[in-house]
Structure formats: C-alpha cells, structure tokens
From TrEMBL:
Originating species: Musa troglodytarum
PROSITE patterns in alphabetical order: WD_REPEATS_1 (PS00678), WD_REPEATS_2 (PS50082), WD_REPEATS_REGION (PS50294)
Ranges of the WD repeats in the UniProt entry: 10-45, 57-98, 154-195, 239-280
PANTHER family: SUPERKILLER COMPLEX PROTEIN 8, WD REPEAT-CONTAINING PROTEIN 61
InterPro entries according to UniProt: SKI8, WD40/YVTN_repeat-like_dom_sf, WD40_PAC1, WD40_repeat_CS, WD40_repeat_dom_sf, WD40_rpt
Protein name stated in the entry: WD repeat-containing protein
Keywords annotated in UniProt: Repeat, WD repeat
A single GO cellular-component term on record: Cdc73/Paf1 complex
C-alpha cells in the first residue's frame, strides 16, 4: 500500500482549513470534495482537477470547524464557531435548515450510514446531539458520563466533547472528549454502554473500521493513534510515529490502512497488519487538521483517494493503492 501525491492547491481558502469531507457520487456527477475554513466559508472541489465547483459558500459568521456529507450525496452540513450548523443542498447551495446550539456546543459531526440522523459532538454541553434529517429537529441528547477515575478537563465541566463516529452498521456511536475519555453508546436504546480508556489528552478525531463494526481508531494530542475493540472495551493497539498532536484519522475503504494528519505537519499512512506507519507525506507546511478517504461509488474509479487540509490554507490530494 502506498500514497502517491496527485495534486495540491495553495491558498484554497483565505484562512486555515480545518475540515474536509467527500460528498458521495450521484447518478449525475462524481464525488466532490468539501472543505471548511476559518475564513467562514465552505467550498466544493472537483475530485481530479481540484478546481472549485462554485464560488465560496457563505452563511457563517465565524470559522467553519467541521463539514459532513449525507450518504445520498445530495446534502451536506457545516458547523461553525458561531454555534450554528448550516444544512445545504450540494448542487444548488440553497440552505435547507439552520440548526442552533448554545456557544461552544457544536464541534465535529457525522451522518449515520443510512442518513437519518446527524450526530454532533456537543462541546461544553458534555453530550452528543442527534438531529433527525427529515425534520431537522433535535431528537435526542446523549449525556457523556464521567469515568470514576477521571480528572476534570480544562473546561471545568468535566467533559468537552470534540469528536464523534458511527459504526458502519449504524448501531453504535462513539465520542471523544477533551480529557481523553471515549464513550460508546447504543443509539437505538439511547444508552451509554462504556468508556474506552488509554488516552489522557484531547481526542480530536475518530473513525470505525469500514469492514469491522467493533474496531475504532482514535487520534489524540498524546501523539498516539489507538485501535480499540469498542465492544470488548479493550485497547487492541497503540501506534506511535507522529511527533506532535494527531488531529485527524480516517480509514481506507478496504480496512487495510488508516491515514492520519498531525500538527507535526505530516500525513501518515499506517498498515494495520503491521500496526506501523509505512509512509509519511510532507506536502504541508503547517498543521494538518483533517484527512479523508474518498467513499465508494462513481464510475471508473480504479484506485482509492485521500485528501488532506491544513493551517497552511492548502488542499493535497493523493492516490491510494
């Protein structure tokens, strides 16, 4: 397995780019790349040329910290430091809904595999918010209990929820917090199941394996990437190689590799059979805030593709094979 640098775009936004996601292909068009920036805009990019599909999409009053695409490829959402989530139509850019939360209660977010629920890491609310995508109403708030052994984090409330991930079967939801604790929920029953231990610093990103709903990967400021059995509550492996905070993690579609982005300015590709980094990409000159593998679908796709975005305002695209 390897990454091959395909294309980079400098000054893709006017400020740092903190978020990237792939919009799945539809019958009418290929997959698109979606980016969100501290310049308060969201942009859509063509997947090969990395040319903009349309002018930057405005609609936030502060920087965009997370973007998520609906599995249908028709709808996306962007969350901002202004405490609003904007839901919009991909092709027309028309706003569909605006979801409001109190200050500092909107961080990363992800649609469930069926596209019926948008899960939002609730920041200082110490919870995960679930929004129904048919009505755009808040249907559930899952409070994150503190582990008995927990030390209070810097927010003083004991929990600041930064990241969320759905299992590929949509049955479980995991979230990561500022103090390093990870909580796992049974969504159908709105029930907290257990914590996963091992990190003691902010867990900024997480992803389940696309081929095994038990396996969860987490990226942490402690410079490590953890691999958990999310059902068995056990730490399966700890992978080290970055020299600073690990800000983002995503899994390849074949489940054989993960990619990470770090504040050490690198993107790493990890072979899960060896549980080690097999490649380091140095395209970026500043912190790499987000990495994302292209989803399945579309015609003529022979190889996988990975995108990364950075504080250096650039987007990089890689072939994965």
């Amino acid at each position: 397995m390897k990454l091959a640098g395909l294309k980079s775009v400098e000054n893709a936004h006017d400020e740092s780019i903190w978020a990237v996601a792939w919009v799945p292909a539809t019958e009418a068009r290929p997959a698109l790349l979606l980016t969100g920036s501290l310049d308060e805009t969201v942009r859509l990019w063509r997947p090969d040329e990395l040319t903009p599909v349309a002018p930057p999409s405005k609609g936030h009053a502060l920087g965009v910290v997370s973007v998520a695409a609906h599995p249908s490829g028709a709808v996306a959402a962007s969350s901002s430091l202004d405490s609003f989530i904007r839901v919009f139509d991909i092709d027309s850019n028309a706003s569909i809904a605006t979801l409001e939360a109190p200050p500092s209660e909107v961080w990363s977010m992800q649609f469930d595999p069926k596209g019926t629920i948008l899960a939002v890491a609730g920041g200082g609310s110490a919870s995960v918010k679930l929004w129904d995508t048919s009505s755009w109403q808040l249907v559930c708030s899952l409070p994150v209990p503190r582990p008995e052994s927990a030390r209070p984090d810097k927010t003083g409330s004991g929990k600041f929820v930064l990241s969320v991930a759905w299992s590929p079967d949509g049955k479980k939801l995991a979230c990561g917090s500022m103090d390093g604790t990870i909580a796992v929920f049974d969504v159908a029953r709105s029930k907290f199941l257990h914590h996963l231990d091992g990190h003691y610093m902010p867990v900024r990103s997480m992803v389940f394996s696309p081929v095994d709903p038990r396996v969860l990967f987490t990226a942490c400021d402690d410079t490590h990437v953890h691999m958990y059995d999310a059902e068995g509550k056990s730490l399966v492996g700890a992978m080290s190689g970055h020299t600073s905070w690990v800000l983002s993690v995503d899994a390849s579609l074949d489940g054989a590799a993960i990619a990470t982005g770090s504040s050490d300015r690198t993107v790493k590709l990890w072979d899960l059979s060896m549980r080690t980094a097999v490649q380091t990409m140095t395209n970026h000159s500043d912190q790499v805030w987000s990495v994302a593998f292209r989803p399945p679908g579309g015609t003529g796709l022979r190889v996988g593709r990975l995108a990364s975005v950075s504080d250096d305002k650039s987007i990089s695209l890689y072939d994965y094979s």
